[in-house]
Amino acid sequence: MSINRPPGYLRVSLLSACNLQCSYCLPAGKRRPTIFAPDDRVRSAIRLLHHFGIRKIRFTGGEPTLSKSLCELVSFVKALDGDIHTAITSNGVLLASKAQALSAAGLDSANISLDTLDPAKFRALTGRDYLDRVISGIYAAAKHIGSVKLNCVLMQGINDDETEKLILFADSRGLDLRFIEFMPNRYSALGDPRFVSSDEILDRLPWDLRPLPGRPNGAARYYTAPSLAIKVGFISPVSHPFCDGCDRVRLTAGGLLYTCLYDSSSINLFDLLTADYGRARTAFDELMRSKQFGGCRSTTGSATTLPSFFAMGG
Ligand code: SAM
Question: Which CATH superfamily is domain 9-312 in?
Fold first, then answer.
């Protein structure tokens, strides 16, 4: 299936570097190339894509808070068009010191990854002893940034015993929490034993969770229960793909623009920045027409042909 739909949501991976090494993203012993997106090119790319209809920009990585330019980029976007929604996806490690400045720069929302509340598990999963920093980062973000959500990649036999604890933690801070299905990537193909479906998790939860209406362009299906003050979301790209509502494009730190994590075709947007507007527009329109809407379920064969999330921004 291929649908020609204008993109509204841009995810920009500012750099491939990260201060954690989460095993589901980059297994221990594997190395990542270090790529930083040049600031001037990111700004020009954003200016161009804004012309093409982008209305929401999420900075990701690697870890976007490692970029010295993150605050300036957020301010740049807000100066370009105050109505663009600005967001980050972060592991939270540096947010205790950066949340206030990011909010002052105009950051509208933050998604923070929190896969476990167990310090030993956190170390095993990420290679670092930084759970306390992440928790402080979450508190600072909740204090300063308008909208904060927690994201948890659930893995069978690793952290799927912590769902209730994570919901109670999120509820105690008034933060919505989303459980993300483990997705195939460069280091593990479809069928990885860590995969556990959202429906299985929903069945196991002790709350009387009721679905909330609507999923406008969003990836998550939300639920709540009378005793919870928060929404619990399920992002289920494997068991309940949301491709038909997807209006995302993704820019890597190296300048490649993709319509999907799992697309094989891309254009080099940084190269096109020096071309005339008409050529850039044509290349962009062609890319949009080629969007396959197959998602991760269309992936077959070996993991080596799949994306690395640290390069694509997850
Ligand atoms: N460093 C930031 C962070 O940790 O949130 C941003 C980059 S990270 C690659 C972006 C998102 O990708 C995170 O929410 C992460 O949990 C998710 N991710 C990475 N590998 C994944 C996988 N195999 N399956 C599902 N989500 C994954």
Answer: Aldolase class I (3.20.20.70)
Please tell me the residue having the least CA distance from ligand 1 atom 18.
Answer: 314
Q: Tell me: the pLDDT tens digits for 30-44?
A: 999 999 999 999 999
Tens digits of per-residue pLDDT, 49-79?
Answer: 999 999 999 999 999 999 999 999 999 999 9
> What are the boundaries of each domain within the chain?
9-312
Pocket of ligand 1 contains residue 314 by CB under 6 Å: yes
User: Does 63 contact ligand 1 (Cβ within 6 A)?
Assistant: yes
Q: Is 115 in the pocket of ligand 1 (CB under 6 A)?
A: no
3 state SS for the chain: CCCCCCCCEEEEECECCCCCCCCCCCCCCCCCCCCECCHHHHHHHHHHHHHCCCCEEEEECCCHHHCCCHHHHHHHHHHHCCCCEEEEEECCCCHHHHHHHHHHHCCCEEEEECCCCCHHHHHHHHCCCCHHHHHHHHHHHHHHCCEEEEEEEECCCCCCCCHHHHHHHHHHHCCEEEEEECCCECCECCCCCCCCCHHHHHHHCCCCCEECCCCCCCCEEEEECCCCCCCEEEECCCCCCCHHHCCEEEECCCCEEECCCCCCCCEEHHHHCCCCHHHHHHHHHHHHHCCCCCHHHHCCCCHHHCCCHHHHCC
- Segments in the chain below pLDDT 50: 1-3
- Ligand 1, atom 2, residue with closest C-alpha: 90
